[in-house]
Design a protein that fits this description.
Layout (H helix, E strand, L loop, with lengths): L18 E2 L6 E5 L7 E7 L2 E7 L6 E4 L13 E3 L2 E3 L6 E3 L4 E3 L14 E2 L1 E4 L2 E4 L23 E6 L2 E2 L3 H9 L8 H4 L2 E11 L2 E10 L6 H7 L10 E12 L2 E7 L5 E11 L7 E10 L6 H34 L9 H13 L1 E2 L15
Antiparallel strand pairs: 1-21, 2-12, 3-4, 4-5, 5-10, 6-7, 7-8, 8-9, 11-12, 13-20, 14-20, 15-16, 16-17, 17-18, 18-19, 19-20
Helix pairs in contact: 1-5, 3-4
Protein name: Rieske domain-containing protein
InterPro entries: Cholesterol_7-desaturase, Rieske_2Fe-2S, Rieske_2Fe-2S_sf, VanA_C_cat
Keywords: 2Fe-2S, Iron, Iron-sulfur, Metal-binding, Oxidoreductase
């Protein structure tokens, strides 16, 4: 949490969309399967380009994605042994970021290297620590749904949404927006059950009531048929818990007996200099039914269903971003208490930008 004695502007009074995500956490920048041996991938954390390198042997490492010579992306280079060579003049950099070879210079004349980032792999993702590297060992990786639990089947997803990352947190936390999904979910209404909050986190709990008989097939296959009575609202017995544990977000669904039947992990990584685009990394874990192979049969239907829901969310969040841009700032009139508290959490835990007319990220490492 930011130092309360710091003389910087009060984050609670600033525009939420001018609050950058705190770099002192582990963020996934790519899926492990997408980075082959002897290859590189170019990624971004905000305005910071980062090259991920997987040598022929050894673990992945992450470097600033530019050659110190002519600033050409190292992600376009050639992996050679435990190093990557710039595609332009062949300057070579090791996992420490130090320049270890310039083909046309003597070894005693090597220039300075580039920045390196702590890097780990977990849950099929490549995580990078973009902030103060000295803090990396003391900051744990997040809980990654049930990706390592064989009782669950897990789906990966990573859409790009053209909006500030805070819109994503608000969207999932506020289940009152089910009206948006009426074509996919039918007539369903969220019922707020309570909340919990503490150092760096906030959680909301909901149940849902269905007032029509339009239960989606994917929902029925996973949770079972909810018996409908046209004369009254029917309670959906599952409890949905949504938690932002900064900077990550999770959604858990428990059945009437308290057993976990679905868990979502998601993190929203800014991938543009102006903060107006976000790369999502998500894991959706679903409890395998007792019937063997049934989960494999319903998996395509679940994928179609969740994709349709997310596309509706994507469209609305991008409209929110466009409105922020057109209106010149955040003019939201928020009335739901849990979302108001969420917004405060995101402001306090994040990094306030300089208040300039142009919403450009100004965070520098070490500032």
């Amino acid at each position: 949490m930011p130092d309360p004695t710091n003389s910087s502007p009060d984050p609670l009074k600033t525009d939420l969309r001018r609050v950058d995500i705190n770099p002192d956490f582990w963020y996934p920048l790519a899926w492990s399967k997408d980075l082959k041996r002897g290859k590189t991938i170019g990624c971004r954390f905000g305005r910071h380009p980062i090259a991920l390198v997987r040598p022929a042997e050894g673990s992945v490492f992450a470097l600033e994605d530019r050659c110190a010579h002519r600033q050409v992306p190292l992600s376009l280079g050639k992996v050679s042994g435990e190093a990557v060579q710039c595609c332009y003049h062949g300057w070579a950099y090791g996992r420490s970021g130090r320049c270890i070879d310039v083909p046309y210079l003597g070894k005693g004349k090597l220039p300075n290297g580039v920045r390196t980032y702590p890097c780990r792999e977990a849950g099929g993702m490549i995580f990078v620590f973009p902030g103060d590297a000295a803090k990396a060992d003391s900051i744990p990786l997040p809980s990654l749904a049930q990706v390592d639990n064989p009782a669950f089947k897990t789906r990966h997803f990573s859409p790009v949404v053209k909006c500030h990352y805070t819109f994503m947190h608000e969207n999932l936390m506020d289940m009152n927006h089910q009206f948006l999904h009426r074509r996919q979910m039918g007539q369903i209404k969220a019922r707020f059950l309570g909340q919990d909050a503490g150092e760096g986190f906030i959680e909301a709990r909901y149940s849902f009531a269905r007032s029509g008989n339009q239960q989606p097939l994917a929902e029925r296959l996973i949770f079972g048929k909810h018996h409908d009575d046209p004369g009254r609202e029917q309670p959906v017995e599952e409890i949905v818990s949504i938690r932002t544990t900064y900077p990550y977000q999770s959604l858990k669904i428990h059945d009437k007996d308290g057993d976990l039947i679905m868990e979502l992990f998601s993190v929203y990584v800014p991938n543009s200099a102006d903060g107006a685009s976000t790369q999502t990394f998500g894991l959706l874990s679903v409890l395998r039914p007792k019937t063997p192979f049934l989960i494999d049969v319903i998996w395509p239907a679940l994928g179609i269903f969740t994709n349709r829901i997310f596309e509706e969310d994507r469209e609305i969040m991008e409209l929110e971003q466009a409105a922020w841009r057109d209106l010149g700032g955040d003019h939201n009139v928020e009335v739901f208490p849990i979302v108001r508290k969420l917004r405060d959490l995101l402001k306090v835990e994040g990094i306030v930008r300089e208040q300039t007319a142009d919403p450009v990220v100004v965070w520098e490492h070490g500032s």
